[in-house]
Amino acid sequence: MQELLVQLAVFIIAAFLGFELISRVPNMLHTPLMSATNAIHGIVLVGAIIVVATANDAFTIAVGFIAVVLGAMNVVGGFWVTNRMLGMFRPPKTRVKKRKG
Amino acid sequence: MQELLVQLAVFIIAAFLGFELISRVPNMLHTPLMSATNAIHGIVLVGAIIVVATANDAFTIAVGFIAVVLGAMNVVGGFWVTNRMLGMFRPPKTRVKKRKG
Amino acid sequence: MQVATFLAYLVAAVLFVVGIRRLRKPETARSGNTIAAFGMLIALAATFLVIDTNATSVWLLIGGGVLLGGVVGAVSAQRVPMTGMPQMVAAFNGVGGGCIALVALSEFYQGRAETWVAASAGLLTIIIGSVSFAGSIVAFSKLQEIAFTGSVAFPLQQVVNALIFLGVLLLSANVFLDGALAEAVGIPFLSPLISLYILLAASLLLGVLFVIPIGGADMPIVISLLNAFTGLAAAASGFVLENYALLIAGTLVGASGTILTRQMSSALGRPLGKIIFAGIAATGGKQEEDDEEREVNDVSAEDVGSYLKEEANKIVIVPGYGLAVAQAQSPMYELMETLESDGKEVLFGIHPVAGRMPGHMNVLLTEAGVPYAKLYDLEDINPEFEETDAVIIVGANDVVNPAANDEEKDSPISGMPILEVENAKRVIFIKRSLSPGFAGVDNPLFYDTDKTMMLFTDAKQGLQEVTEAVKNA
Amino acid sequence: MQVATFLAYLVAAVLFVVGIRRLRKPETARSGNTIAAFGMLIALAATFLVIDTNATSVWLLIGGGVLLGGVVGAVSAQRVPMTGMPQMVAAFNGVGGGCIALVALSEFYQGRAETWVAASAGLLTIIIGSVSFAGSIVAFSKLQEIAFTGSVAFPLQQVVNALIFLGVLLLSANVFLDGALAEAVGIPFLSPLISLYILLAASLLLGVLFVIPIGGADMPIVISLLNAFTGLAAAASGFVLENYALLIAGTLVGASGTILTRQMSSALGRPLGKIIFAGIAATGGKQEEDDEEREVNDVSAEDVGSYLKEEANKIVIVPGYGLAVAQAQSPMYELMETLESDGKEVLFGIHPVAGRMPGHMNVLLTEAGVPYAKLYDLEDINPEFEETDAVIIVGANDVVNPAANDEEKDSPISGMPILEVENAKRVIFIKRSLSPGFAGVDNPLFYDTDKTMMLFTDAKQGLQEVTEAVKNA
Ligand SMILES: NC(=O)c1ccc[n+]([C@@H]2O[C@H](COP(=O)([O-])OP(=O)(O)OC[C@H]3O[C@@H](n4cnc5c(N)ncnc54)[C@H](OP(=O)(O)O)[C@@H]3O)[C@@H](O)[C@H]2O)c1
Ligand SMILES: NC(=O)c1ccc[n+]([C@@H]2O[C@H](COP(=O)([O-])OP(=O)(O)OC[C@H]3O[C@@H](n4cnc5c(N)ncnc54)[C@H](OP(=O)(O)O)[C@@H]3O)[C@@H](O)[C@H]2O)c1
Q: Which residues does the UniProt record annotate as the domain NADP transhydrogenase beta-like (chains C, D) (predicted)?
């Protein structure tokens, strides 16, 4: 019970943190940001690996294996594609404010 | 051990949350904000109450009692004074942008 | 060992947070992504540490699976063209949702979801994960134009959705009550496990039905929402597996994804509720086409060149999706240089949703070498049009379409703020035909023969010709 | 019961977060404070639920203590004048630090700090709590001008501090090792408990020595820093007591307090490192006073009135601490009205640290009815001075003192951005004498007889007279 309560506490604080983290991101970063957070939830791969490692029957092994493949795609592809996108945003040489006067 | 690790996790996430929460507060709110967070750490009163409630000897009772008094001052005075300060910030009737053109 | 793993997970979570923080600014975004990826590596390494098995077969399976998925992911990510990014993200999100649904399924199969917490969190994981999987695949198909393009509607759609949702609830209750519900109503063959399979199928169907009525223009928002869903599913499975890495990372993605979705939908001027619950009420435009030929002011590159040279001083260039298709960013840069060497003032007006992904135009133009300082946002450029002599619109339509302001007609772009090019003295379109853009809404500006010049050609060729014409005029 | 308490603590933590969020905007700030206070109420109520005692004496003690402390806190909070707010906050912060140090002490006394985690967190709590307590009391005394005013320095200060800090470390180690350290070096009477008492005293001394060299102008920053310290101590005691309310709330305050401190110090233009490690190198100004009489342009209210009436069109009013002392906000409002009815343009230039607390001037002026739109920030007003005919400076000095820009002299206000009133055509001071302000730095503008008019009088009276003079001129 105590364990569950603590998990709940972690969940709530982390949710607030998530909300706060994304405050007013510039428009042009929406896609990379979506893509990067998408890669982060690829952490589910951890769960899939544990399933395979602790599986005792063929069905679970099969399901787990598919899950591992899918999870790995999510992680690797997600970070990779984000990196490619962000490579397009070359650092501006002189970041002068747009308005002249 | 597990308990401690989880506490550490909570501590770290909460610290990030705290950092994120105060991002670019307008100058004029610095004092009330300081005062309100000051009142919030008055939560130590909870600790002081538990000390008195579980004390077995005179010394602890005395120390705990002083702690309760100090903690209560922190909580009540803190929120009270913040409220008074913020009462001064009357909501602007028309919050037009300062610049005329 | 357990302690080391926990600490590693915590470090990973911190790196995720730091990474997301850095993703908020263009200057630091790329390093943010790298930091988050590094966190992931740590989390995975720590997981290998706790695997308590000596069976090589298990290691082979895991290693093989990771390798297979990783290679497929990396290759697709490397190959996809820039314009295909949104559907790529949709696909990766979908597989993540599928992964987490399968993990939860196997927990039930192995009888591990014993407590009520584990059971309810597990059911939630299966439902959300499947919806996210199926929805993402549909979104992918739409954007890739494989299937379901446009807004697919059928009669009684809402009723069907509601019924399926009810079914999902009942099946969940049955699983939760260990089959007691099915027995009570006299269908004992509906064992918990069979219920689970049906639940999975029903959730997938729900995901499909959720996304098909939504038009392609709203897909980026839907993908972002499904991304938040997958994060939430990961968090729920963190409860089941008592795994803090999943719990924290999933929650972060779920929460930040929710906010991001809201921000995106407000940037595109499309309230989330409208997107989800209405779809787009059958895209008009395309079909409505009144066959009557309407007159346009069809001009040559020379006409454009001499107008620019002789009568225009302040020129605004508005790029759109066609620029990306024609890969015409370098010719555009040259036109800018030529005009500037003639002493003209040249600005770029960048609409937030020009192109097919947020930031699309910024990416292309900075790639071509246009300085940041010349790229003006919607709010910054609109006041400038009043004093502009010529607006050159290259391969764009929706973002300058005044039909968005027409309150009487309900079109897919109604209410979207647009670049108000009609305030300029002259409007020059460079595109191949009169066909409308992504949203399929005809543009009344095409037919304003006094103000508008239409240069019908490919963007790259057109820009090159105009540059020549300016030089020679 | 335990579950209910935990959930209540969680709700309290959420309310704290929501409260702090709302404190970021003036419109919602007050409700944010109320929400946080409500959270505290819930946390306290939940604590009463877990108290496992029937002894009325315990209940009486707790109730009596809370009542006593609460009444003292409320009465002081209600009575303190607006100008005394900073020291009030310092006092409340101090008592909080003292409370938490005593709690940790009693944990040791009762032998509860058994594990190494509890012991180290407990020691940290005692040290930080005591430093915060003593430091806050010193800050209070400085601001209230009871003692330690100005920057108190003595020889070898840094060395003494370092030695005490070393002592604190050694004592902590001795407690941690259960007295083994003292035995090893042959002073066995230094039992863990006695070490603790000495530790407490040494930490208090450290707190005093930390704050006394710092000048009064930097006190708000120091108070904010000590506030963050107390939060951190609360978090540490959360580890000892395994109490998530203390842990979360303390961490939130510790972290947000740290950021707030940095923001305040950058707003005041004073790097944190400089404040802490240098104190202010003996405030010059006051002593340097060269007795030589320097000439000033001493004027009457009538002179000011006729200048304003006849030669000034654009007028900027700069209020300072003296306005608050004289309670002259209403006369100031009337002067504004009078000038505006004559067709003049009147603006207010508000320096971020004018007065004695952030937002001091905004509070006073909006109280008097001056519309928000007329209050200009530092950055917004500075470009306006070029075209300003007259700046009326009411009871301010530091915030308009060009000595801040003098790079050769190191004064307490060096580097602070100021209101550049010297760019205006005329500068009119309304103050009682030539005495400098808070920082004690003389103002060269006083002696610029061409540009400056000095109206030596109380702010309230002066403003009233000037208003009359404008009406009659
Ligand atoms: N940015 C995002 O995040 C995002 C994501 C998804 C959807 N969208 C949607 O995409 C649309 C973007 O608007 P937009 O104005 O940039 O584009 P658009 O309205 O889709 O118009 C693109 C135009 O480019 C022309 N074109 C295509 N290939 C060309 C070529 N090779 N040379 C010259 N012209 C060419 C087409 O006309 P011709 O065929 O006559 O040449 C078409 O009218 C909006 O509706 C937006 O909601 C945006
Ligand atoms: N805002 C904050 O958060 C804060 C907090 C702590 C410290 N501070 C410091 O406080 C200072 C604020 O600068 P400031 O320019 O507002 O004030 P100041 O530099 O302290 O000057 C106040 C002036 O008001 C005059 N005065 C006092 N009573 C008066 C009365 N009844 N009528 C007319 N004049 C009167 C005094 O001169 P006479 O005696 O000649 O009349 C004095 O020169 C800065 O140094 C700042 O760093 C600010």
A: 7-468
pLDDT in tens, C259-309: 999 888 877 777 787 777 655 444 444 444 455 668 889 999 999 999 999
Distance C447 CA to ligand 1 centre (A): 19
Distance from CA of B58 to the nearest CA of D (A): 11
DSSP class of residue D72 equals: H
pLDDT per residue as tens digits for the range D240-281 = 888 999 999 999 999 999 999 988 888 777 778 777 765 544
A4 touches C at CB < 8 Å: yes
Distance from the Cα of C186 to chain B's closest Cα (Å) equals 46
Of D298, D377, D398, D448, which one is the catalytic site residue? D398
- D17: nearest CA partner in chain A: A16
Give me the residues of B, 51-80, that contact D with CB < 8 A: 51-57, 59-61, 63-80
D204 band by pLDDT with thresholds 50, 70 and 90: very high
Annotated catalytic residue, options C291, C398, C410, C458 = C398
Answer yes or no: C298 catalytic: no
Name chain C contacts of B16, Cβ cutoff 8 Å. Answer: 14, 17
pLDDT tens, D113-133? 788 888 999 999 999 999 999
Q: How far apart are the CA of D30 and the centre of ligand 2, in A?
A: 27
For chain B positions 15-54, those within 8 Å of chain D (CB to CB) are: 15-19, 21-54
Q: Whose alpha carbon is nearest atom 4 of ligand 2?
A: D356
| Residues in chain C where the model's pLDDT stays below 50 | 280-289
Would you state the pLDDT for residue A89? Answer: 67
ipTM for the whole predicted complex goes beyond 0.85: no
Q: Do B60 and D43 touch (CB under 8 A)?
A: no
Residues C123 and C176 sit within 8 Å (Cβ to Cβ): yes
**Could you report the per-residue pLDDT of D298-357, keeping only the tens digit for each?**
999 999 999 999 899 999 999 998 998 888 888 999 999 999 999 999 999 998 888 877
Model pLDDT for residues A67-85, shown as the tens digit of each residue: 999 999 999 999 999 998 8
Q: Do D3 and A9 touch (CB under 8 A)?
A: no
Contact B76 D70 (CB under 8 A): yes
- Where exactly are the structural domains of chain A? 30-89
The Cα C283–Cα C151 span in angstroms is 7
- Cβ contact C98:C140 at 8 Å: no
- What is the model's pLDDT at position D97? 96
Domain C289-472: give its CATH code: 3.40.50.1220
D37 CA: distance to closest CA in chain A (Å)? 19
Structure tokens at B80: 């009270």
pLDDT digits (tens, 9 = 90+) for A26-57: 777 888 899 999 999 999 999 999 999 988 89
The residue in chain C having the minimum alpha-carbon distance to the alpha carbon of residue B14 is C14
Q: Is B4 on the interface with C (CB under 8 A)?
A: no
Does this model's pTM top 0.95? My answer is no
Integer angstrom CA distances of residue C214 from B72, C218, C227, C277: 56, 7, 16, 9
Residue bearing the CA closest to ligand 2, atom 28: D322
